[in-house]
TrEMBL record, chain A:
PROSITE patterns for this protein: ABC_TRANSPORTER_1, ABC_TRANSPORTER_2
CDD domains found in the cross-reference section: ABC_HisP_GlnQ
A Pfam match: ABC_tran
Localization (cell): Cell membrane
GO cellular component: plasma membrane
Domain ABC transporter: 23-268
Swiss-Prot/TrEMBL keywords: Amino-acid transport, ATP-binding, Cell membrane, Membrane, Nucleotide-binding, Transport
Family indicated by similarity: Belongs to the ABC transporter superfamily.
Coiled coil: none
Protein name: Ectoine/hydroxyectoine ABC transporter ATP-binding protein EhuA
Highest taxon listed in the record's lineage: Bacteria
Automatic annotation (TrEMBL), chain B:
Protein name: Ectoine/hydroxyectoine ABC transporter permease subunit EhuD
Single GO molecular function: transmembrane transporter activity
Pfam families: BPD_transp_1 (PF00528)
Coiled coil: none
Annotated ranges, domain ABC transmembrane type-1: 19-210
Membrane topology summary: Multi-pass membrane protein
Subcellular localization(s) per the UniProt record: Cell membrane
Top-rank taxon: Bacteria
InterPro entries attached to this UniProt entry: AA_ABC_transptr_permease_3TM, ArtM/GltK/GlnP/TcyL/YhdX-like, Ectoine_EhuD, MetI-like, MetI-like_sf
Keyword set, alphabetical order: Amino-acid transport, Cell membrane, Membrane, Transmembrane, Transmembrane helix, Transport
One BP annotation, GO: amino acid transport
Gene behind the chain: ehuD
From TrEMBL, chain C:
Membrane topology: Multi-pass membrane protein
Location in or out of the cell: Cell membrane
Alphabetical GO biological process terms: amino acid transport
Residue ranges of every copy of the ABC transmembrane type-1 domain listed in the record: 1-189
Gene Ontology MF: a single term: transmembrane transporter activity
Entry keyword set: Amino-acid transport, Cell membrane, Membrane, Transmembrane, Transmembrane helix, Transport
PROSITE patterns documented for this protein: ABC_TM1
GO cellular component, one term: ATP-binding cassette (ABC) transporter complex
Membrane-spanning residues: 6-30, 42-61, 67-89, 136-155, 175-194
Protein name: Ectoine/hydroxyectoine ABC transporter permease subunit EhuC
Lineage: Bacteria, Bacillati, Bacillota, Bacilli, Bacillales
Entry-linked InterPro entries: AA_ABC_transptr_permease_3TM (IPR010065), ArtM/GltK/GlnP/TcyL/YhdX-like (IPR043429), Ectoine_EhuC (IPR014342), MetI-like (IPR000515), MetI-like_sf (IPR035906)
Similarity annotation: Belongs to the binding-protein-dependent transport system permease family.
Length: 273, 238, 209
């Protein structure tokens, strides 16, 4: 899959059954109180595609991915995950708001890494990784443990298995958070500014791990990031969000180097200077 | 069901006769505790390890033994102590007993207030060469006292609810009145219910008031936290 | 000194039921069911709004009169009064601690596709309980002190025996009450150290906002 060619032009095809699309946002809006934060988002993500989401603070990047993780409910519109409607379910032929059971069925393919890690402080590193496979996916304990250890080794923390999160640096915590999400074998991984809570000297080690994951290629990834160099390097597609709409999108070089969108230029300028 | 309204209305004026004593005793105990509490705080600031240790454990002793037994000690036992013993009225015994018991809690409240003042403030008042009195009256106390006000208010309510213990040594507050009404008429139900209702009617609104005050205070003193979270969201821009 | 086993029995039973009521009421107050919530709030406010001694007398003297039933024993009345009273106070701690576990914890659990029940059991609750420990310890000492009240409803605890001793020899009063105070203090000591231990545990392993 890693060599899968990515079509340059954004697919306007919004058919639910499209095999080439794993996540599809259809006309999504989101309001907090009277404030409309997202004003009609249409976005298709292909299996194994790496999408970088950039934009000024408050433009709604976090909200977009939180809705996919079911942490925030859209005000209108639909999100289709692998052919299944995330926020609605069918009941006696009618489309009704999803219940917890339906959400759990659909979001099983999605994983997320948070800005502030959100590791479980009362569990060791290993337990942080093992708990969900055992209780959620009903995997047997031995194999969950084995896979968790393997994953923690992969992110370079094989020697910290029995440590508690409070004993780790920020960069190490974030790598554990990634291992914890990866052992669930998601088809889509969401990263919400995973390096912005880190000391500058720790950013590199975390980006390195993401780069490795991206290279393996099987997973779709949506990265909210302010690391433009990094986005240019690993993303298949860059989306610039501004004022609650997608203001520009395309290949990294199109968006980051050759766009003449004025707002985008202003935004990028702040990072270059 | 065996509720009798005639008994209720007969008991009501009778029990209410005790309300002045109950409220008066509450405030007397509270005032006494506020003052003695200062004493504890002062004693604990003596920079001597042994004295500090002794004071801490005396406070711990008073705090972790039942106020009821302390009342009995002061009322029944104190007069029997050779040389220093004096006979006290039930009211005075209650003020002394409950006042001292709660002074140990109040002292901790004062201490938390003082310790809540940032280290920099102490250093600044030294740097500005204030005298000890000036340091306390101008810098430390004005910052230490306001955050403790809701806590102190809470203790007023807590003490109000402990005051009926004094009925056991003969202070004629509402509980004592209810008891005597009950024993005369062989009807405890209505009389005790009235006592419960009086407590509820007085302490519930006060608790709400204190709660509001606390929230207001928190908002005032949480400016720093608010500032931090603001910076955090700003930090996300770059 | 006699009566100590009564004091300890009342303490243990009150503690067990007190914590039980605290957890039940604390969780009910967080429930989405408004009737359940209303009912528990009513219980909590009634018991926090009145005195323990009044509740004790009410349960012991008034309840049997009201319903024509006998609570059976003064042990039951004593334990019920103490545990309902402190259960109400501690339910606030249960509720507060659960709310104090940061939102990010529950979100991370959702991102791992845990069910609502799993989020509570595996992530929120273990952290909340750690936060509750110091306050639970403090209330245990409060409950120990409260056991002295059962002498007022005719239970033969330490204080009751002390009062008997005093009335047979008035000059023995200072020794008798001092001894009782020391007894209570000795019983409180392990609880004081337990509370400190709880404080140490609760400082670790919690993500609060
Ligand atoms: N829970 C919420 N309640 C109210 N407003 C919110 C909430 N979450 C986000 N917002 C608002 O929505 C807007 C978009 O937020 P967010 O998606 O976090 O932006 P970004 O991640 O791009 O910085 C912001 O103006 C933010 O203040
Ligand atoms: Mg964001």
């Amino acid at each position: 899959m890693s060599e899968s060619v990515v079509t340059k032009e954004h697919s306007q095809d919004t058919q639910t059954e499209n095999k080439d699309v794993i996540v599809s946002y259809k006309n999504i809006t989101k309001s907090f109180g009277d404030v409309e934060v997202l004003k009609g988002i249409n976005l298709d993500i292909k299996p194994a595609e790496k999408v970088a989401l950039i934009g000024p603070s408050g433009s709604g990047k976090t909200t977009i991915i939180r809705m996919l993780m079911t942490l925030e409910q859209p005000t209108s519109g639909e999100i289709i995950v692998d052919g299944k409607n995330l926020w609605h379910m069918e009941k006696n032929g009618d489309l009704v708001p999803a219940n917890e059971k339906h959400l759990r069925e659909v979001r099983g393919d999605i994983g997320m890494v948070f800005q502030h890690f959100n590791l479980f402080p009362h569990m060791t590193i290993l337990e942080n990784c093992m708990t969900a496979p055992i209780h959620v996916q009903k995997e047997d304990k031995a194999s969950a443990k084995e896979r968790s250890i393997e994953m923690l080794k992969k992110v370079g923390l094989g020697d910290k298995l029995d440590n508690y999160p409070s004993q780790l640096s920020g960069g190490q915590k974030q790598r554990v958070a990634m291992a914890r999400a990866l052992v669930m074998r998601p088809k889509i991984m969401l990263f919400d500014e995973v390096t912005s809570a880190l000391d500058p000297e720790l950013v590199g080690e975390v980006l390195e791990v993401i780069r490795d994951i991206a290279k393996e290629g099987e997973m779709a990834m949506v990265l909210v990031t302010h690391e433009m160099e990094f986005a240019l390097d690993i993303a298949d597609r860059v989306i610039f969000l501004d004022n609650g709409v997608i203001a520009e999108e395309g290949t990294p070089s199109e968006v980051l180097e050759h766009s003449d969108n004025e707002r985008l230029q202003q935004f990028l300028h702040r990072f270059r200077s | 069901m065996n509720w009798r309204w005639d008994m209720f209305f007969e008991a009501l004026p009778y029990v209410l006769q005790g309300i002045g004593v109950t409220i008066g005793l509450t405030f007397a105990c509270y005032l006494f505790a506020l003052i003695v509490g200062f004493g504890w705080t002062f004693l604990r600031r003596i920079p001597n390890k042994t004295i500090n240790w002794i004071i801490t454990w005396i406070m711990e002793f008073i705090r972790s033994t039942p106020p009821l037994v302390q009342l009995f000690f002061i009322f029944f036992a104190w007069p029997m102590v050779p040389y220093v013993g004096v006979t006290l009225s039930p009211f005075a015994s209650a003020v002394l007993g409950l006042g001292i018991h709660f002074s140990t809690y109040i002292g901790e409240v004062y201490r938390s207030g003082i310790e809540g003042v940032e280290k920099g403030q102490w250093e600044a008042s030294r740097a500005l060469n204030f005298s000890t009195t000036q340091k306390w009256t101008k810098i430390i106390l004005p910052q230490a006292i306001p955050p403790t006000i809701p806590m102190l208010g809470n203790y007023l309510i807590i003490m109000f609810k402990e005051v009926p213990l004094a009925a056991t040594i003969g202070v004629v507050g509402i509980l004592h009145m209810a008891e005597s009404f009950g024993s005369v008429n062989f009807r405890y139900l209505e009389a005790y219910t009235i006592v419960a209702l009086i407590f509820l009617a007085l302490s519930y609104p006060s608790a709400i008031l204190i709660n509001k005050l606390e929230r207001k205070m928190n908002r005032r003193f949480d400016k720093k936290a608010a500032l931090n979270s603001m910076n955090e969201s700003k930090g996300a821009v770059s | 000194m006699r009566g100590i086993e009564i004091t300890i029995t009342v303490l243990i039973l009150s503690a067990i039921f007190g914590y039980l009521f605290a957890f039940i009421a604390g969780l009910c107050r967080l429930s989405t069911n408004p009737i359940l919530r209303g009912f528990t709030s009513f219980y909590v406010e009634i018991f926090r709004g009145t005195s323990l001694i009044v509740q004790l007398f009410w349960l012991y003297y008034a309840i049997p009169m009201l319903f024509g039933i006998d609570l059976g024993s003064n042990l039951l009345a004593g334990v019920l009064a103490i545990s309902l009273n402190y259960g109400a106070y501690m339910s606030e701690i249960v509720r507060g601690s659960i709310l104090a576990v940061s939102k990010g914890q529950s979100e991370a659990a959702t991102a791992l596709n845990m069910s609502r029940f799993q989020r509570m059991r595996l992530v929120i609750f273990p952290q909340a309980v750690r936060m509750m420990l110091p306050e639970f310890g403090n209330y245990l000492i409060q409950m120990l002190k409260a056991t002295s009240l059962v002498s007022l409803i005719g239970m033969h605890d330490i204080l009751y025996h002390g009062n008997i001793l005093r009335s047979s020899d008035l000059s023995a009063a200072p020794t008798v009450y001092l001894l009782i105070l020391v007894f209570y203090f000795i019983m409180a000591l392990p609880l004081i150290f337990l509370t400190r231990k709880g404080e140490a545990i609760s400082k670790k392993g919690v993500a609060s906002q």
